[in-house]
What we know:
The complex is a heterodimer of chains A (about 250) and B (about 70).
Chain A: E1 2-8, E2 26-30, E3 33-38, H1 49-62, E4 68-70, H2 80-89, H3 91-101, E5 104-112, H4 118-127, H5 138-171, E6 175-182, E7 188-197, H6 201-214, E8 219-226, H7 234-238, E9 241-245
Chain B: H1 3-22, E1 25-28, E2 31-34, H2 45-69
Antiparallel strand pairs in B: 1-2
Amino acid sequence: MYVYAIVDRPESPISKMDGLDDAPVHLLGYRDIGAVVSLSSTAKVPPTQVNLWRHEAVMDALMPDRSVLPVRFGTVLADEKSIQGALGAHYDDFVANLSRVRGRVELALKVLWDGDGAGMRAREAAESAIKPAADASPGRMYMAARLKEYRERQERRDYAEACAGVLHSALADLATQSRIQLLPTRRVLIAAAYLVGRRKVADFRRRMEDLRVSHPALRFVCTGPWPPFSFVGVEECRNGHRIVKSDVSAG
Amino acid sequence: MNQSALREKNVTLADLLDRMLDKGVVLTGDVTISVAGVDLIYAGLTVLLSSVETIERIRNEGAQLSRMASGRP
């Protein structure tokens, strides 16, 4: 059986819909929670665009009526009994998570690093590093190149941290939780996720527009609302606003 | 579809992949590990790796499109 989500209010029937491979979706209740599932003919569901969007569509259809904990794509359990077992074994966790995300959605925000604004500053800073003479020794040339790289990386990191501060002061009060990842790839300065009450989504978007106007050198891309994918872990319960530094450019 | 809409669609797809394949509740038989970031992936390492490549490709295409859209080289 393919599992889409863990939900509350199992007593309230879900609307009729088709899941992966057009199999009808249904709800398996366990006490006051449930798992939303459909029959699957295979244990390994390929992550095609069609399948990914179908999984997402099922969760979207559930979200207006109940709290939803999204299950990772590709989760297939043997039968009804093993699903009931998983619900029972982690019942307390699921109830706590469902209550924390109730009435809230996830909004994703990326701040892109481009050549005009922030990137240029970093390059200029690096260029101002000591330039070796044209006839410098290979060792000296090598050290100068390394120094340039180091300064560029440092500048980029400083800029990402400054940006995280700007985002925090602009958006944090609208979200009950946030996850901000600095420099997840070379081009992405910040990848952030915010857990926002449904009624505050419009305010959040307005603040995003303000940020666009006040920071023309940066590109902001906002997607969602998503089911609360980034906020369903045990660790996620403990922290309010968290910044993750994973500097891939350091490699 | 204009370039801006296409870019938006690509970013949305990258965000979808990022979430579906790397986040969310993980159920493996009677073990549940709900993580964002740490990782044991039920769908399999091959899927994870191909999704990362896909995300990177989409991001690169998105960046190229955004340069084209703004008329920069």
